[in-house]
Amino acid sequence: MKQRSMELKVGALVLFCIGLLVAFVLLLGDLGGATGHLVHVDYATASSLKPGAAVKIAGVTAGRISTISYWGGKRDEAVGRNVVVRVTLDLDPEMGRTLHRGARFYVSTLGVLGEKYIEVDPGDFDEPLLVSGAKVAGEPPLRFEVVSMQLARVAEIVARLLEDNEQIVRDLLRHSDETVVAARAAVDEAGALVKDNRATVREVIARLDDTGVKIDRVVDALQIAVGDGRAVRRSIAHVEAFSDRLDEGSRPVIRDARQIARNLEELSGRLRDEPTAEVVFGKEGQAKVLGVLDKVDGVVTDARAVTDNARQGRGTVGGILMDNELFMDIKLLLKDLKRHPWKFIWRE
Q1: Are 130 and 103 in contact (CB under 8 A)?
Q2: Residue-wise pLDDT tens digits, 269-305
Q3: CB 270: neighbour CB atoms within 10 A?
Q4: N or C, which terminus of the chain has less Cβ within 10 Å?
């Protein structure tokens, strides 16, 4: 009887432990089934994600990964794209209803080498809500093996470049050393120069300070002269007013000058196409001018004839001019009359 009672107690204890273990597994592993807000996220790689991994929204745990299924590039006509890996998220209903269209799903890590989980950016709050059962594309995770392969490729290319240009690299390093040595020598020389010319440097600095003081005084004087700028603005206004008046006064002059230029251009064209006298005097004026010119021509002809007769000794003027004896008698007569003017009124 005691033995049977002991066996019942042991059996009850075992059943209690098994039930407690199942309860812990269901609570900690979240194996109670998908009963919350579901979201299906498609990735190109699972990136070591595991069912039961945490899902966080803005850093707050909001659920777990329910399932991870491999589609192998099969096309999902509902979303119109090929799916490689689909991860189903089971979120808390309250927190799941805070997600909006355009939400982003990142594969992140707890620490540097910690467990992988999914971090969710809820998206723009002005967008419509993301309904339960929605299928979205996740952000591609950073794959360390791809990054390491690319780094290895870069390292290989750098090593090949260094190997193919070893002499150039050595020359570059040698020139760099020489440049450093030359720069150091230049710095030393500059230090020695400053040290040897301390008095001059101090004097230059003192002059610069004095120049700065003078510039400050000039600026202060300009500020006093300008003041609040009213006088300058008034002068500018006067200049603008004078410019406007000058512009108004010069417009008639410019207009007259343009008219004169047009008249001169018209006159020039007429002079090219018509006789000058006709353009200047008109047809009647041209006839009068021609008549006057004819008369002047006759007078010139008569004067030329008189001159020719005088040169040949014909006529009274010619006789007087060409007969030297007669010219001398007249000259003596004039001298005598100048000396004895009373002879004009009295004769012996």
Answers
A1: yes
A2: 665 555 655 555 566 665 665 666 666 666 667 667 7
A3: 14
A4: C
pLDDT tens, residue by residue, 213-251: 888 887 777 777 666 667 667 777 776 776 677 667 667
Query: Residue 323, SS3?
Result: coil
**DSSP string across 68-83:** EEEEEEEEETTTTEEE
- Residue 136 has phi, psi (to 5 degrees) of -130, 165
- Strands of the sheet containing 104-109, edge to edge, are 104-109, 116-121, 54-57, 60-76, 81-91, 37-43, 134-137
Its pTM stands at 0.39
The pair of three-digit structure tokens given for residue 327, joined into one six-digit string: 């010219």
d(C-alpha 49, C-alpha 89), whole Å: 12
Task: Say if residues 303 and 312 touch (Cβ distance below 8 Å).
Answer: no
Q: Which two tokens stand for residue 24?
A: 């812990």
Neighbouring CB atoms inside 10 A of 213's CB total 10
Domain locations in the chain as residue ranges: 33-143, 228-273
Beta strands in 116-213 (DSSP E): 116-121, 134-137
The tokens for 114 are 């910690």
Tokens standing for 54? 């945490």
